[in-house]
Amino acid sequence: MYVIMVYDVNVKRVRKVLKIGRKYLNWTLRSVLEGFLTKEDYEALKNEIRSIIDSENDTVYFYIIETSSRPYRILLGNAPAEFNFIE
Q: How many other C-beta atoms lie within 10 A of the C-beta of residue 61?
């Protein structure tokens, strides 16, 4: 499955959430990671993120695309060089 993870967390937890996310997904924009995961890896990612965030104040979205092919993407503007942008 193709997973897109978008997060908005307290500045104290941003690095931890990003570090966990990068273990499983590719970092594409400031608070966005994406990539193919197995169901087991997806569950592991969710559990690790759940253990770090404050569920009262932080938000993490997972968009799941059940497909074997990469989603179609159109970029408008310039992708920042520091991000691992996937074409």
A: 11
Whole-prediction pTM value?
0.82
In CATH, the architecture of 2-65 is 2-Layer Sandwich (3.30)
Q: Where are the domains of the chain?
A: 2-65
Query: pLDDT 10s digit of each residue in the chain, 87 long?
Result: 999 999 999 999 999 999 999 999 999 989 999 999 999 999 999 999 999 999 999 999 999 998 767 777 777 777 665 555 454
CA 67 to chain CA centroid, Å, is 17
Residue 8 annotated as lining a ligand binding site: yes
CA distance 82 to 76: 17
